[in-house]
Amino acid sequence: MDKEIGFRFERDPEYRVVTANGAWGGITPRGELMFDLFFEHLDMPEEIYYLATPDGLGPESRRVPDPLMIVREALVGVVMTPENAESLARWLLEKVASIRKPNPNPNFPG
After folding, report:
1. Is this model's pTM higher than 0.70 or not?
2. CB-side exposure of 15: number of CA atoms within 13 Å?
3. Number of folded domains that form the chain
4. 69 in a domain, yes or no?
5. Cα→Cα distances 80→7, 27, 89, 94, Å
6. Does residue 46 sit within a domain?
7. Which domain holds residue 88?
8. What pairs with residue 64 in β-bridges?
9. What is the pLDDT of residues 68-106, one digit of tens each?
10. How far are the Cα atoms of 6, 8, 24, 71 from residue 3, in angstroms, in the given order?
11. Does any domain span residue 76?
């Protein structure tokens, strides 16, 4: 007789969804992988100035600070063993492959 093992998924009260478009990290002294997931975007200026014209507001003349900086806003740090990282990498690649293959049922995503 086969035994069955179940997994129940629960969310921590502080669970949140993180939108990330990049990662930065490396190997820890203990041989684990550590990386930050970040969201990369243009920094919002503190001030914007426009030229005044007889008709009202003219073209933008300058921004402070100038030039605009690209910001990498670190959202969460992740530490995992090489085995866990390899498992995560396989899982991610499987999900990407399923997204890229033609969907036989366009009314049902994935």
Report:
1. no
2. 5
3. 1
4. yes
5. 21, 10, 12, 20
6. yes
7. 22-100
8. 47
9. 788 899 999 999 999 999 999 999 999 999 999 887 666
10. 10, 17, 42, 51
11. yes
